[in-house]
Amino acid sequence: MDRKTRSYVYAFLSRMFAKELDSEAVGDLKKSEDILDILGEESKKWFAENDEKEILEKANIDFSSLFLINAHPIESIIVDDKDEALVGLQNPVMQFYFNYGYDLHLDKTQIQTPDHIALEFAFMQNLVLQKEDKAAKEFLHLHLMQWAPPYLFSVSKEAKTPFYRELCEFAGEFLIADYDYLNRALKEEK
């Protein structure tokens, strides 16, 4: 997979996990058969057979249930036994961001923790665009691979809509594939 495609996938995943769908996102997805093909047949069929209002209602109930009420997509909550989000410099993800000049402005987003999956995906997009493959592999190894694939595969089983079920499955599979890709690419460079 080329760098442009990888960065696009990370940007897409960041947006999809950052907040619930809105009319614009639903419209874009309905027009984007390529994305729906990648996610899966059930999602493609679901978007084709339902109107925007129904998709918004069901998807946003699913989003709220999956990511706001029952299973927060935040690394420190999943990894730490204390079940609390780490903020500021006590969060190891923040130090990684600072080391690579990634400046977070949490005051301009609804997301209040630096280790939210959407922000980690956005950081990966930045590393891909900056051609920081070693840093991307290290970040995947130390952070996303430690929690995101098992989290995503578990959450996919709880999803009520085909979109979030297939999105979570795709995201988990993509992370594993990208990590494998980076391992191979960096070995070939040596």
Task: Describe the secondary-structure layout.
Blueprint lengths: L2 H16 L4 H9 L1 H7 L1 H9 L2 H19 L4 H5 L12 H8 L17 H13 L3 H26 L3 H28 L1
Helix pairs in contact: 1-8, 3-4, 4-10, 8-9, 9-10
Describe this structure in words.
This protein is mostly helical. The chain has one domain (3-189): TorD-like (Orthogonal Bundle). Helix content is 74%, strand content 0%. The protein is built from 10 helices and no strands. It has helices at 3-18, 23-31, 33-39, 41-49, 52-70, 75-79, 92-99, 117-129, 133-158, 162-189. The longest helix is centred in the C-terminal third of the chain and has 28 residues, at 162-189. The protein is globular. The two termini are 20 Å apart.
